[in-house]
């Protein structure tokens, strides 16, 4: 029944957590790979089109080269990770939107008449706009997606209207206007549909967030912010069914009833919060610490009996260093038990509880190992 921990099994540090916080998520890594693959195929195609058709098509000759250069820079920025996925998506959306709108403006305003303009605006031109709408809602937040896609639609309407309306007002047949109107109405309907779907997606995401928040509250101790008894019971059952060794450490704050009686529950709550913080700082990756109830805490420790014993020793020393401005020194008694065979959670915890009683009977502020 020792009460001192030996070095080793160092707890995870705040520096480690900070270092990992900037790590890209799996979704971001996947999107980066998809975009780089698309650029790997698309950029050579743009330059090849410019090389083959640049001399015969003025639009291709003027814009395809700078467009390809911008896409190349975008790809290099993503490849070297100088450009985040989110920023790359915004740059790509603005660049491609400007390119598509410039192409539509060129086709509409260089056509000799309205019939030729309708013919020049093939289905692929409007399909490009639909793809831009989709990408806007997928890559951006709903509000930004609505703004960008609405701006694209408004610009498209102005481009077409600036060519069609003057000719119709000058006496051109109204039938020349109908094809453009049908296309704009169809695009507007698609935009409204996508906007509705995006809002529905946001509502579903908000509902899922609420459900996760409620789930978290149901498994979190309101006072300390640590996992509560329900969460600890579920985690213990899961660990005992696994192949790795599982140990439990029951921690009982010494003389806590006297603290409440002498100083009130507000001071007692502050002591419990301080104890919870100290225990959490001493745990290692793979350990789980929570509030078991009242003045009791529980640690689910990984790594076998010896590692759990060392962890309990370090935690005891950490608590012994606590000094509350009202209460003074804070100590606790520890009971350590390691799973035996097919032992149930109740049996394992009962042995740890008996070890805590042994620690208290031996004078408190010490670690006892279950028999």
UniProtKB/TrEMBL annotation:
Pfam families: GGDEF. Residues 244-371 form the GGDEF domain. The chain crosses the membrane at residues 34-52, 58-79, 91-109, 115-139, 146-165, 171-194. One of its GO terms (molecular function) is diguanylate cyclase activity. CDD domains: GGDEF (cd01949). GO terms for biological process: cell adhesion involved in single-species biofilm formation; negative regulation of bacterial-type flagellum-dependent cell motility. GO terms for cellular component: plasma membrane. Keywords: Membrane, Transmembrane, Transmembrane helix. Residues 1-25 are annotated as: Disordered. This is GGDEF domain-containing protein. It comes from Egibacter rhizosphaerae.
